[in-house]
Every structure is written in structure tokens, then in C-alpha cells.
Write a structure and sequence with these properties.
single chain, 646 residues, alpha/beta, Luciferase, domain 3, Rossmann fold, GMP Synthetase, Chain A, domain 3, binds adenosine-5'-monophosphate-propyl ester
Length: 646
């Protein structure tokens, strides 16, 4: 989505309105009366009330410092583990389904013991409060265990998605100044064992200073540990039975760092705080996902991204529910997998992505319909816009027409949902993400920074602070999208966070998301900066210039790279192979372009800016938009004929 397309994207409100089923409304965690008068900021007290505080806070929000719950003290594991021991120590906290058909479960008591042993182990390694621990692990139970163990001793964790390469891991460890790494001997990719030891070794060479590495045995492979390395199981066993008192953290202290893509070539580190973030993750799990302690709850996100932090680990465990974790991904090992799991575990709440839903649609309704889905009460989606058709399919064929579907809009920087329907309160509008949640305020503004009317496209901004906001948003570095000079002036607001998304609002306040307006691509729900990928491509010998765009593969988004070579007649196949390898090395396999198009020149404006909008049109097989302002309009036709023939 480019700026000049925004104004064209004006549509009326979503055509359909669907009331939440009466049976759901009766039992919903939050009713219309509960939120009828939600006063900002004092009513955020209600979110904080979902946690266990060891020191009461002085105020809900300090407008001067932009801090939430200042003066308050707590430990995240006090809320997620200790306080559940009284009433639900024998209830399952985690149920893990591995790719090889294994199942492991942890009751709240077992999880508490495991986390304590690992917290003691961390201490024995010399990890203290505020030391950053990096985790580079697939979805195995050790990942949430180590996250919680870090939280218990006040050491912020930094989870790096397991798909990231050695270079990307080293860069993130260096940014965080992290000297401790939890990794694994390997993982399973669609059933095949893939060793990751070389990747870890390569990364550690590039990390400044010594690194202590703890290796989780996932493959059971033979490997030799270095002097500074430990085997996870042995280390944990050496501390089994030990308890570690949870360290009191200030509400404003760091809980963790998460990495995402921004508009520069470097990864963007986002900091979440202990009190504000946790209260917000718990509140939105309660109010939007309607999570209850007796539920079995399944969010399919990888814990390596923010959704897994807020809605696999912290929110649901703070509420004392049973969390299902799955290693394989919803399309592995078979098309029956998601439905078998829902039936076998009697899943109550199923939270997934539009990409997964489109895959389910392709497979056909006969798969879910063959299984018992009567346990389902609520469905949710996150990560990208969902089309009204995919929404309806999910609602009818998975929810059987009697589970509300919440389309939750949020970002790494926001910590938790900001736009959604409250499932027991609001009508749903397929295709619209929903409204600003109670206590949150959103606006869509035009180029001049003032709100545009209903149905008109513009920039989505959030104009009240909320407890889940990343520290960077409180301290002024809040330009998620563009540089301050480039962003629309937001002087119409006392405070506003420009989200980097384009959107429009309808008369009823429902927001429809149109996509990113900055140089960040959303590929199957993962944010990737064009600069990050382009600089990896530009490092390849023989590449003069590159531009990447996202392309719609019949619903799921992939990457298209356009490259102009230094040499007039390069071997396109070997150049494409070198580019794929360079991206895989710098970022990871998941960022590899699906297609590399070699072209003599890239389309540019008279000032020399690459016009990605045209490249996106071409990649998507659409008629390219206006080329009159180009300094080299002829290249558009040349690129088209090199892809599609004359
Ligand atoms: O463009 C929006 C899209 O994902 C971006 C945030 O990506 P990330 O920080 O990786 O977090 C993903 C999980 C929260 C947003 O700027 N996005 C997220 N949810 C939705 C969405 N787009 C449309 N509808 C959504 N429900």
C-alpha cells in the first residue's frame, strides 16, 4: 500500500452485521454494562486487578512520565504461576504436541517446579537482574519455561524467532548486549530433523564477548559441548527441587525485548514492561479472547513473535488457563491435524491467522466437519487483514455459526489488542477488525494529520496511551512507520502514535485495515523491512540495486525481488540462487524471495526514488498504475515482458 493509493481506498461500511450468539453473551467475561463507562486512564485499574501485586502502585498512569502503574511492584511469575498453586496446582498449565506425535503436559505445580529449577540454574550461571538472556528455540515447552525462569529472577528475555539465521541472531544478541543463549541441537521441519548446532556456533563467533550457551536436546543428537556450554536437561536436573523467590520488579521495569522490522535495515528492538504489559496481556485475553481458567486454549502463533508472548504465554497463564502448544504448525503433519487436536483436547478458544484460515479453506470444509468441534466457544484471528469470505468460512465451517469470531488488530509495539470487537458485547462485521477497545482511542488521519470522515482511507493513529504500550512509545521514539519528518503532522492530538497502517473507519466506529503504508511488508503475518532484505540482496556480487515487494499468492503473501545487475548479461539463475542464499544467511529461510526478476533498470521518479507501487502491481499481475511521473517509463513494459513474455 502506498500513500497515493490510500485516498482511493474508500469503501462503505462492511455490508454485514452479525450479532454475537445469545449463549455466548450470557457467559462472556465482559458484558456491555461492564464497559459502558470506561474512564481513561483510571479504569485501567481493572486490568491491573487481574494480576498479583506485591507493592501497590501509587497511580494508574503518570501523564508526565507516561508510565503505567508507577510505584507498583510485582513479579510476572507470581501472577502466572505462584498464585495458581492454591486452587489449580493439579490443573494442566501446558499441553505440548510435538511433531513426532509426542505429548508432554505440565500441571501448574509441575510448571512451577520446572521454572524454579531453571531459575536456580540461571543464577548458577551468574545471570542476575537486568542481564539479558537470548532464546533461540522452536515451540518446545522449554521455551516458555525459560521465559518464565528469566522473569522470575528479573532477567529480561529476548526471544529470537527460531527461523532467524546465525547472522540475524548475532546481530540481535549484540544489540541487547546478551551473553547467555538458550538454543537447541536442532528442530524438526515438517518431520525432518535439521541440526542447528553449526548455526549457533557461527552466531557465537560474531557475538562480542563470551557467550554461555545452554543446549536443549530436541533431536537427541551427539554433540560435544564447549567449556562455556551446558546441556539443558543436565543443568535443570542439577537444580531440581530448588526454589527461587520471585524477584520484585517495578511495574516499569523491563520484562522482555522483542524484535520486529522497522523501516531501516536494522532490526527494531521493542521493550515491554512488567506491570503495564502484563496487565494488558491479561486484560485483553480476558475481555477479547474470553479466556477462562477451565478452558483449553489454543493460539497457533509461534512463541518467537509477539503474539506467542502475549497470547500463548503471559496472558493465558496469568488467567490460569490450560494452554495447548503445537510444534508442527497447523498444516503439519496432515490436513486433519488442527481438527484432531481441537477434538482430542476439547479446545474452547482457537486463535489463529488469516494465512492458516485460507489454507483450511483450500483444503475444504470436509476436514473440520468430520471432527467434533462442539467444545469451541470463540474463534480469533490476527496478523493480517482477513477477507469477508475467509471470515465467513471460519465462522460457519469451524465455528458452526455459533462462536463469535474476533478479528484482533495490534502490533509488536502495542503489546496486546487495540482494535477488536468485544465478543459478548458488539456485533461483528466480517472484514472489519472492530473498534478501538474500551479505554483506547483510534483515529484515521489524512496527509495534513487531521481526522478524515467515515469511509475515507488514511493513516491509522492511536491517540491515547494504553498499558501495553512499549517503552519506546512512552519515551518519544514512537514513529513506527516513517521518520518524524515524513509522517503526517499530528499536532491535532495531544499525544498520538502513528501505527504505520492505512485504514478507514465506518459510521459505527469499525476500523478496516488496508495494509502497511511504510516500507514494511507483512508476509504471512511476519513483518519484514524492505531495507533489511534489500541490503542482504545488495551484498551479492553482481547486484547493483534491488527492490522487494509483497505479492498475493491467491490469498497468502510472498516476496518478489527485482534486481538490476552490474553486468549486462548476468546468468539469471545463478544470480537468483546467490540472492536466495544471501537472504537466508542474513535473515533466515522464511525471508527468501519466492521470485527474483533481473531487470536492466528499476522504475524511478525524477528524483531517483524507486517506485515500488508499480513493481507491486506487476508482481501481482495487475495493470501497472500511472507511469507518467517516471524518469524511465519504458522499463515498466520491459519488466512485464521479461516476466510474462510479449
Ligand atoms: O499491518 C498490521 C498487521 O500486522 C502488523 C503488526 O505486525 P507485528 O508487529 O508483527 O504483529 C503481528 C501480530 C500482532 C500491523 O501493523 N496486522 C496485525 N493484526 C491485524 C493486522 N492487519 C489487519 N488485521 C489484523 N487483525
Amino acid at each position: 500500500m502506498r500513500d497515493d493509493d490510500l485516498a482511493l481506498n474508500t469503501r462503505g461500511p462492511a455490508d454485514e452485521r452479525i450479532e454475537p450468539p445469545a449463549s455466548f453473551v450470557e457467559q462472556a467475561n465482559v458484558s456491555g454494562a461492564d464497559v459502558a463507562e470506561f474512564e481513561h486512564p483510571e479504569d485501567w485499574d481493572r486490568a491491573a486487578a487481574l494480576l498479583e501485586w506485591t507493592t501497590p502502585y501509587d497511580a494508574v498512569f503518570d501523564e508526565e512520565t507516561m508510565e503505567w502503574f508507577p510505584g507498583g511492584g510485582l513479579n510476572a511469575t507470581g501472577s502466572c504461576l505462584d498464585r495458581h498453586l492454591d486452587r489449580r496446582k493439579n490443573q494442566r498449565a501446558l499441553v505440548w504436541e510435538g511433531q513426532r506425535g509426542e505429548t508432554r503436559t505440565y500441571t501448574y505445580l509441575e510448571l512451577y517446579r520446572e521454572v524454579n529449577a531453571v531459575a536456580a540454574a540461571l543464577r548458577s550461571l551468574g545471570v542476575g537482574e537486568d542481564d539479558v538472556v537470548t532464546l533461540h528455540l522452536p515451540v518446545v515447552p522449554e521455551l516458555p519455561v525459560v521465559m518464565l525462569a528469566c522473569a522470575r529472577i528479573g532477567a529480561p528475555h529476548a526471544v529470537v524467532f527460531a527461523g532467524y539465521s546465525a547472522d540475524a541472531l548475532a546481530e540481535r544478541m549484540n544489540t541487547a548486549g546478551s551473553a547467555v543463549l538458550f538454543t537447541c541441537d536442532g528442530y524438526y521441519r515438517r518431520g525432518d530433523a535439521v541440526s542447528s548446532l553449526t548455526r549457533t556456533e557461527t552466531a557465537c563467533v560474531d557475538v562480542e564477548g563470551d557467550v554461555t550457551t545452554v543446549v536443549v536436546d530436541r533431536l537427541g543428537s551427539d554433540y560435544t559441548l564447549g567449556d562455556e556450554d551446558y546441556q539443558y536437561g543436565a543443568l535443570r536436573d542439577a537444580h531440581a527441587g530448588e526454589t527461587v523467590d520471585p524477584v520484585e520488579r517495578a511495574a516499569t521495569d523491563d520484562l522482555f525485548y522483542s524484535y520486529t522490522s522497522g523501516t531501516t535495515g536494522a532490526p527494531k528492538r521493542v521493550t515491554h514492561t512488567t506491570g503495564g504489559y502484563l496487565a494488558y496481556a491479561a486484560w485483553t485475553s480476558h475481555a477479547v479472547l474470553d479466556v477462562k481458567p477451565r478452558d483449553t486454549y489454543w493460539c497457533t502463533a509461534d512463541i518467537g513473535w509477539i503474539t506467542g508472548h502475549s497470547y500463548v504465554v503471559y496472558g493465558p497463564l496469568a488467567l490460569g488457563t490450560t494452554v495447548l502448544l503445537q510444534e508442527g504448525g497447523t498444516d503439519f503433519p496432515s490436513r486433519r491435524t488442527p481438527w484432531e487436536l481441537i477434538e482430542r483436547h476439547a479446545v474452547d478458544v482457537f486463535y489463529t491467522s488469516p494465512t492458516a484460515i485460507r489454507t483450511f479453506m483450500k483444503w475444504g470444509p470436509e476436514y473440520p466437519e468430520r471432527y467434533d468441534r462442539s467444545s469451541l466457544r470463540l474463534l480469533g484471528t490476527v496478523g493480517e487483514p482477513i477477507s469477508p469470505q475467509a471470515w465467513q468460512w471460519f465462522y460457519e465451517h469451524v465455528g458452526g455459526g455459533d462462536c463469535p469470531v474476533v478479528d484482533t488488530w495490534w502490533q509488536t509495539e502495542t503489546g496486546g489488542h487495540l482494535l477488536a470487537t468485544l465478543p459478548g458485547v458488539h456485533d461483528m462485521k466480517p472484514g472489519a477488525a472492530g473498534m478501538a477497545l474500551p479505554g483506547v482511542s483510534a483515529a484515521v488521519v489524512g496527509e495534513d494529520g487531521t481526522p478524515v470522515g467515515p469511509g475515507r482511507g488514511g493513516y491509522l493513529v492511536i491517540d491515547t496511551p494504553w498499558p501495553g504500550m512499549a517503552r519506546e512509545l512512552s519515551t518519544g521514539e514512537r514513529w513506527a512507520g516513517r521518520t518524524e519528518e515524513e509522517a503526517p503532522p499530528l499536532s491535532a492530538f495531544e499525544w498520538a502514535y502513528p501505527t504505520g497502517d492505512g485504514a478507514f473507519v465506518d459510521e459505527d466506529g469499525y476500523v478496516t485495515i488496508l495494509g502497511r503504508v511504510d516500507d514494511v511488508l507483512n508476509v504471512s503475518g511476519h513483518r519484514l523491512g524492505t531495507m533489511e532484505i534489500e541490503s542482504a540482496i545488495a551484498s551479492v556480487d553482481g547486484v547493483a540495486e534491488a527492490a522487494v515487494v509483497d505479492v498475493d499468492h491467491g490469498g497468502s503473501r510472498g516476496l518478489f525481488a527485482y534486481v538490476s545487475p552490474t553486468d549486462n548479461s548476468p546468468d539469471a539463475d545463478s544470480l537468483a540462487a546467490a540472492i536466495g542464499a544471501a537472504v537466508e544467511n542474513a535473515i533466515g529461510r522464511f525471508a527468501r524471495p519466492d521470485e527474483v526478476v533481473v531487470t536492466a533498470e528499476l522504475p524511478k521518479t525524477s528524483s531517483g526514488k524507486i517506485v515500488r507501487r508499480l513493481l507491486t502491481d506487476i508482481a501481482n499481475g495487475e495493470e501497472p498504475g500511472d507511469t507518467s511521473a517516471l524518469r524511465n517509463p519504458e522499463v515498466v513494459g520491459e519488466i512485464e515482458s521479461s516476466i510474462f513474455g510479449d
